[in-house]
Write a structure and sequence with these properties.
The protein has 309 residues and is α+β, with helices and mostly antiparallel strands. It has helices spanning 2-9, 13-22, 64-67, 73-84, 100-106, 179-192, 206-220, 224-230, 235-238, 241-255; strands spanning 44-47, 50-53, 111-118, 123-129, 134-138, 142-151, 154-161, 166-172, 259-267, 270-276, 281-288, 296-301. The protein is 31% helix and 27% strand.
Length: 309
């Protein structure tokens, strides 16, 4: 990839990366050559119970793009913050050296790996490789991203949680030190202590708001014209209009006059809300179609079955 960059950009890959990424992100301690003096960490190998200093690792050159950067926890934290800032998708100004959409693409699985379960720790590992990053689906934390580094004398890992907006960096001066586990355990300790930031709340899209308000109106007083405006083409094929109308009327009779609560957002096209009535309440789940504007593609009410309004 470094050679590709050089051939296409017409400058060494290192120069291109410095100009397009390192400087714009103000990674002031990230360099292609080892820092001089006490700022440089010496790498070691534990061999037969003896600590042995490793020879200098990869120097700047044609192979540097694969593992040639020297950096710090502070700079790598800025890099993680740049990746976290890609979430959630939004229409704010996007002045970064790489667009938010491209950063999100980097953090999606493009090549899956087999899932593994560790019965001793209760950890399930599932996910795959993104674009330069490993993407995990974690039972405890949800979406989790990371990247490892290792050369003779060094081992590293950085791991972050988009849903919580937090990450961990671990650098060690030991050959292939297992920092992957250290970063995961650090997040688990933070969670155990209640110190992990709460999950980021997601703003409801306009499409979800329209769907919530429309479904509430249909339950309160069914209207065929409104149903036609709200529903995607499949909805009345999946279940007949008469059945949906009857279920809405039955729900209204059970709950009384209804109003809609706040949306719980899963994505821009999927969420749920509580339908509050005079004498009860019900949870409504809804998914939108990939149209402009989006329409209701599927919905159900807890306890009433998939066809319910």
């Amino acid at each position: 990839l470094g050679r590709v960059i050089t051939n296409v950009a017409g400058v060494p890959a290192q120069e291109f990366v410095n100009e397009r990424i390192v400087r714009p992100l103000e990674l002031s301690s990230t360099t292609w050559r080892p820092p001089a003096g006490p700022d440089r960490m010496t790498g070691y190998r534990l061999l037969d119970g003896t600590w042995r200093e490793e020879t200098a690792p990869l120097d700047d050159g044609d192979f540097a793009p694969m593992a040639g950067l020297w950096s710090t926890v502070s700079d790598l934290s800025r890099w993680i913050a740049f990746m976290l800032d890609a979430f959630p998708p939004r229409d704010d100004p996007d002045a970064g050296p790489l667009s938010r959409s491209s950063r999100r693409e980097m953090q999606q699985v493009h090549r899956a790996f087999p899932s593994e379960y560790d019965a001793e720790t209760g950890r399930l590992t599932a996910g795959g490789y993104g674009l330069g990053l490993t993407a995990f689906n974690d039972l405890r934390f949800g979406s989790m991203l990371g990247h490892a580094g290792g050369l003779p004398g060094f081992g590293s890992f950085m791991r972050w949680l988009p849903d919580h907006g937090v990450g961990v960096v671990a650098l060690a001066n030991l050959t292939y030190a297992p920092m992957r586990i250290a970063t995961l355990e650090a997040l688990e300790v933070l969670d155990d202590l209640g110190a992990l930031p709460a999950k980021r709340s997601r703003a409801a899209s306009s499409g979800l708001i329209v769907a919530r308000d429309g479904l509430t109106r249909l339950v309160d007083r069914w209207d065929d014209g409104l149903a036609d405006e709200l529903f995607a083409m499949n909805v009345l094929l999946d279940d007949a209009r008469d059945r949906r109308r009857d279920q809405a009327v039955a729900l209204r009779e059970r709950l009384g006059v209804v109003s809609a609560g706040e949306l719980t957002v899963e994505s821009a096209t999927r969420g749920s809300f509580v339908l509050r009535g005079e004498v009860g309440e019900a949870t409504v789940h809804v998914m939108l179609s990939p149209e402009v504007p989006p329409r209701i593609q599927w919905y159900e009410v807890d306890g009433l079955g998939e066809s319910s309004p």
